[in-house]
Amino acid sequence: MNQIKGRLIEILDTKTGQGAKGVWTKTDMLLETEDQYPKKVKIECWGNDAMAIKEIELGTSLYIDIDFESKEYQGKYYTSIKSTKITRA
What we know:
Blueprint (H helix, E strand, L loop, with lengths): L1 E18 L2 E12 L6 E7 L1 H5 L8 E13 L2 E13 L1
Antiparallel strand pairs: 1-2, 1-4, 2-3, 4-5
């Protein structure tokens, strides 16, 4: 399990759709790490986390357990970072 700590700086698009297992919801957020050289990281939040992230104030420090996945599309690879657990710091 990987974990990242940072400040919530932006809540991006929310998308919903219909899949084989029912309706899904995804919200992307932008986190800025609290390192010596801060980096911005886009993280996908699914299901309950997608709804819960909207209730957190911008600027709040968070610990986020994350999972990585890469998928190939037309010969190119795209990597996504998905949250598995969100905790206030």
